[in-house]
Write a structure and sequence with these properties.
By secondary structure, this protein is of the alpha/beta class. The protein has a single domain, classed as Glycoside hydrolase/deacetylase (TIM Barrel), CATH 3.20.20.370. Strands 1, 2, 3, 8 and 9 form a five-stranded parallel beta sheet that branches. A hairpin with a 2-residue loop joins strand 6 and strand 7. The chain has twelve helices and ten strands. Helix 5 packs across helix 6 and helix 10 runs parallel beside helix 11.
Amino acid sequence: MSRRIASLSLDLDNKWSYLKTHGSDAWRDFPSYLDVVVPRVLQFLREHDLKITFFIVGQDAALPNNRDALCMLAEAGHDIASHSFNHEPWLHLYEDAQLDDEFTRAEQAIESATGVRVKGFRGPGFSISDRVLRILSKRGYRYDATAFPNVLNPLARAYFFAKSNLTEGEREQRKALFGNFSDAFRPVKPYRWNLDGVELIEVPVTTMPSFKIPVHFSYLLSRSGFPQALARAYFRFAVSMCRMTNTEPSLLLHPLDFLGCDDDRDLRFFPGMNMVSNVKLQQMHDLFERLSHSFEPISLEEYVEKADQREGLRVFQPDFSF
């Protein structure tokens, strides 16, 4: 059977951003694992002959000690996009002036560190709003990749809260973390937002067609209690569902997909961080091989280029009230 395309992207969340969302004050020193994870990811991608999209956090790009690692991504020919400046999953609560400042700082820091002017955006913690989309459109972004049509969003948030040290006020601030159940009613395939006559392409993080449950690599690796054979069977079924429904998946990666408890003990609260790195990497190799049997993995930038040339993309007015 001929292969269709699938986009691959990695949200380059750093250690401090996980600690910040978790409620630990240790984030204020900006601890980093980029010097470990970036070379490891690049080696993995070279072995599979892949170019993907990296969503970089502006705060990391602004710190001199991260510059070498971030430069490696652009020098290796990978696509670079923005993951905000402060990586706050309550971005949807920002006012217009705050958003403009957030995007300006991220764009300037990322371009300074990598030489790339960003065209794409993904909100931290899948944070999205009408205001965010309109500011992105005004600033000339080509696409957003934040939407996550997943029925398990509320359960993921409840699990995270149970493992966190958040105050009641912080929980209220993060009440939309990972998205809401209503997000599951949004399309799985790419579409366009109509923003006062200007259109912005939305590329949702793919969930299993019809079932709307996660299929991205981070989800599979976080199910550390699953036998590996079951995880592979689950992913094979997801890939088959994508082919049956003519869905060209957009799959998401995270740094913790390539890191284990032998690399970092401070993040053991995060699902899947009880595994050692070599076990994770072998699972990742297996999943990538399975995906490549049916789809040609490409960067989000290339994926959007192809989607933009097609007729028939559905158009929606932003509505986050339900």
